[in-house]
Amino acid sequence: MKVAITGAAGLFGHGLVAAFSTRHEVFPLTRVEADITNAEAVRAALEGIRPDLVVHSAAIPDIDRCEEDPASALLVNYQGTCNVVDATRRVGAGLVHISTDAVFDGTNVIPYVETDPPAPITVYGRTKLQAEDAVKTLERYWIFRVSVLFGPGKINFVEKGLRKLAAGGEYLVASDQLGCALHTVDAGMKIMEVAEAGKYGLYHLANRGICTRYELARAAAELAGLDPAKVVGVPDAQMKRRAPRLKYAVMKMEALRHAGFAFPRPWQEGLAEYVRTVKL
To answer: Which of 3.60.20.30, 3.40.50.720, 3.40.50.300, 3.40.30.10 is the CATH number of 2-152+180-207+250-264?
Structure first.
């Protein structure tokens, strides 16, 4: 299968390329090869490849940047996705779209399932939900909502903390944001499995188990042989960030279960594998 992957230079893009390359012919697309805000560039890129599957991970994932610059967030996250949807339709491919837990408002007290009504509270969440609606106009699509990501290829929440600790500093993280974590390579392998099976639809995807950002950062520190006491947990309200964060973002993987797929391994196992690759 020929697979085109947008956002290939991003964190999730690295995991997707690594996973799909194990079994398929992969065409990584960065902004240089296909700027998703340029409809003609996206069409030309996909028409040149004629892929069987397009995996769309390109976006502005920085929630604070989106809040500060909503026009850019709309252009990239929504209009860029519309351009990818249009080009995908033209070449007759299926489309995998990477979405987010930020389509919810974080007020639940039980895990979110795929059928729960979205209610985004940030610009990022709203533009990603608009993107989901655009993707749903295709006949063959998969939408995967994900949460806190870690993995090789690009700096991320986990590696940022490890580097601060290794340099002798402290890592200040929110102690009251409960959600899911996901190893990008694990994600890529599961997405590939679902896509190969042709079981279309909307899925929540995470490594098994739940954790706060604080618990994730402390676990990473311990695995790296660094002092977990230097990970300082504080209430999110004290972080003074521009965009609000979800207090509760646990996602239940009901769609995967109903479709007959096994869940990814526990987040602790994925984290241990990843931390071993981080060079400090």
So the answer is: 3.40.50.720
Taking CA atoms, 95 is separated from 44, 51, 133, 220, in Å, by: 17, 10, 13, 34
Residue 203 a catalytic site member: no
| Axis crossing angle, helix 80-91 with helix 39-49, rounded to the nearest 10 | 30
Type of residue at 113: V
List of residues 6+ apart from 252 with CB closer than 8 A: 111, 112, 113, 204
Segment 94-120, tens digit of pLDDT:
999 999 999 999 999 999 999 999 999
Which pTM value belongs to this model? 0.96
| pLDDT, average across residues 82-94 | 98
3-state DSSP assignment of residue 9: coil
Nearest-angstrom CA–CA distance, 247 and 252: 16
Backbone φ and ψ for 62, nearest 5 degrees, come out as -75, 105
Q: Which of 112, 124, 200, 248 is catalytic?
A: 124
